[in-house]
Amino acid sequence: MQLKQNVNLPKHIGLIIDGNRRWAKERNLPTLEGHRLGYGIVKTMPDWFFSRGVKIISIYAFSTENWQRSRQEVNYLMKLMKRALADDIEEFNAKGFRLLISGRVNELPGDLGELCQEAMHITKYNTKGTLNLCLNYGGRAEIIDAVRKMIGHNLTEEQVHEGMIRKYLYNGDLPDPDIIVRTSGEQRLSGFLLWQSAYSEFLFLNKYWPDFEESDVKIILDEYNKRQRRFGSG
Questions:
Q1: Helix, strand, or coil here: 40?
Q2: Does residue 19 fall inside a structural domain?
Q3: Which of 14, 144, 195, 229 is 20 to 30 Å from the Cα of 102, by its Cα?
Q4: How many CB atoms lie within 10 A of CB 41?
Q5: Catalytic pick from 6, 8, 18, 154?
């Protein structure tokens, strides 16, 4: 279903997909079951947004702080990432979606880093929607990495400005998110897209990620359509 042309539609939506573990705990299920169902939503959800005209989705899939979780949980999450990049990428590519990955990809275990590069290459020229997967990502880490690259390129003080910093972010050519949505009822960014979210709208859904459904997409788009973005002008 396409929205009417006069609707104020966000081009780029950021998603903090939170609540997998609490969803499982409240149902007396293993934590991994929450992640498994959450992964299923991640697979299906891009169709819901892209079919309505949204162009870019950024998902907070795994943060630099998530390594502190149990080895069992981290290993399972890495297996899900590998499944997505190795097995499910063909279906994703067939739909005409482009995959980008933001984060410290070179620090991922095993061959995950190579799979990330391969998946991005396979989908490079697709135009029906862009999914930016934030993997081993942290907003502060992104800014630190950008500064390090700038120092490595011997930039002078006069060359440092907002546009130059953006150029050195993980995927600096992406527009800033128009709205950032977090599930689970928590109301914080947790380091997600810190530089890019300066003027983003925020929406916090009081439901866990495994319960996210297509009707929530309409709620998000309807809520964004009500907002008046002034970018500091008044």
A1: helix
A2: yes
A3: 229
A4: 18
A5: 18
Number of domains in the chain: 1
pLDDT digits (tens, 9 = 90+) for 14-69: 999 999 999 999 999 999 999 999 999 999 999 999 999 999 999 999 999 999 99
User: Strands, DSSP E only, in the chain?
Assistant: 12-16, 56-63, 98-102, 130-137, 179-182, 201-204
Is residue 175 within 8 Å of 9, Cβ to Cβ?
Answer: no
CB 224 within 8 A of CB 178: yes
Question: What is the C-alpha to C-alpha distance for residues 139 and 90, in angstroms, rounded to an integer?
Answer: 30
CATH number for the domain spanning 88: value is 3.40.1180.10
List pLDDT tens digits, range 131-180. Answer: 999 999 999 999 999 999 999 999 999 999 999 999 999 999 999 999 99
Query: Is the residue at 114 inside a domain?
Result: yes
The pLDDT of residue 205 is above 80:
yes
66 is a catalytic site residue: yes
192 pLDDT more than 60:
yes
Number of helices followed by number of strands (H, E) in the chain: 8, 6
Residue 18 appears among annotated catalytic residues: yes
Domain carrying residue 39: 12-226
Which is higher by pLDDT, 5 or 141?
Answer: 141
Residue 222 within a domain: yes
Q: Is residue 23 part of a domain?
A: yes
Amino acid 228: pLDDT: 84
Q: Could you give the angle at which helices 112-122 and 71-86 cross, rounded to 10 degrees?
A: 30
Q: Are 117 and 150 in contact (CB under 8 A)?
A: no
